[in-house]
Amino acid sequence: MSLDDLHFAHLNALDIYQSQIQQLSKDLSNGFLALAAANVAAESARGAPYGREMYEQKPMTATRGVRISEKSGSDTNELVWEDHELQSEPNGPQEVPSQKPIEQEGLRRRRGKDGDGGSDDVPRGTSEDNDADADEDKTTDKPTEAAIPQKKSPLILFHPLPPPALRVAGTAFSTAIKTLPELASTLHNLRVLANQIEAMCATSTEKYIYKLLTEPPAWPIELSQLDQSSGYIHLCTEQQALGVMTRFMGGFKELWALKIPVERLGEKDLRWELVDDVDGERFPHLYGELKEQDVESAGKVERDQEGQWRWGEVKWE
């Protein structure tokens, strides 16, 4: 693919990205506006906005319904619609009146029928009987479990249908969710095309790139800890070499440099990427293996008497 083709593909991807951003912004704004309108209507009708924690347990039933049945005496599949009023559900949740606890048999009468201070006519029950009666009294105070809805269901809240504004909000948010994966794919495509354009532009201007080593080169080459942690091989151009040696390799007295023609790395994954420590400058990074046949020559870099690197005096072998 030529440089013009890469630029054309990049512009096409950029146009798709802008259209997806506009669509996502439109869907999100419509969704939040519709949700706000639904909350305003809900607060006036229910006193609370919509939310998973705001589902009510009381049923919101419809007042009228429609019966659909086949027309009798007709050969065609005609349907008959009958409008009618709805009655309250007989099996709906009903309040269970609380029952007063039954007095214990052993404590029912402390006195005789005549009201005198005589002893009890009925003997007191044992402690085990009293505990059993107390447990029975506790169960009679509580309504049955079937009468209390244990789970909050949005189907109960939105019966028979959710409000129109809430349906519009749900549709807008669903469309926005579908746009997000497409937007992520477009962003990845833009990054790939940008790296290819940078690499092709650098190839047209730079003929050689360099790999700096702290030890004499040996094949297969041993990667530094920085290369292993980064996941790629750090390279540099001739203009960047002196700055890299001064900044990152100041503690060494001698270094070795590998001279690599850029054209030999054409089929490999060579990317020109920005570095966080250097603003606005891209460095070549090789995502792959550096082989001996990729290197044209190697040279030793030493310091002068003043401690400066003598890059211009390197003898390439």
Radius of gyration, taken over Cα atoms and rounded to an integer in Å? 41 Å
How many strand units?
A: 8
Distance between the termini: 35 Å
Largest sheet: 3 strands, antiparallel
Order of helices and strands: HEEHHHEHEHEEEE
Task: Write down the overall mean pLDDT.
Answer: 71
**Tally of separate helices:** 6
Q: How are the strands ordered across the major sheet? A: 3-5-8
Helix percentage: 25-40%
Structure classification: alpha+beta
Shape: elongated
> Could you list the spans in which at least 5 consecutive residues all have pLDDT below 50?
55-59, 89-108, 117-122, 145-151
Number of domains: 2
Assess the beta-strand content as a share of residues. 15-25%
GO biological process, one term: vacuolar proton-transporting V-type ATPase complex assembly
Region (Disordered): 52-151
Organism: Pyronema omphalodes (strain CBS 100304) (Pyronema confluens)
GO molecular function, one term: unfolded protein binding
